[in-house]
Amino acid sequence: MADNKIEKQSLEEFFVNRLNELMKERNLTRYKLGKITGITQASLSTIMSGKCAPSLSTIDKLCTGLGINVSDLFNMDEERPYILSAEERDALRHWNEL
Length: 98
What we know:
Blueprint: E1 9-10, H1 11-25, H2 30-37, H3 41-48, H4 56-66, H5 70-73, E2 82-83, H6 86-97
Parallel strand pairs: 1-2
């Protein structure tokens, strides 16, 4: 296998990495993001550590605070592949239908 092969990420890993990327682009700390979104520091820490998946409501607050829409949050290119479970695909499909 080639050394430059892109490893697959779980959705949780992708989400945490993407959130960190977006925060860095906007020069936001967890504290600042919490103040903007109204999400507690404890909740942000749990989400950012990958210990807990955020609810759809929390995802919406994060996107609003970051000034993006949900599709921007989950936007991926060939450099950021991830694997969705059937349950995760159903949740995203439901979200997109709202």
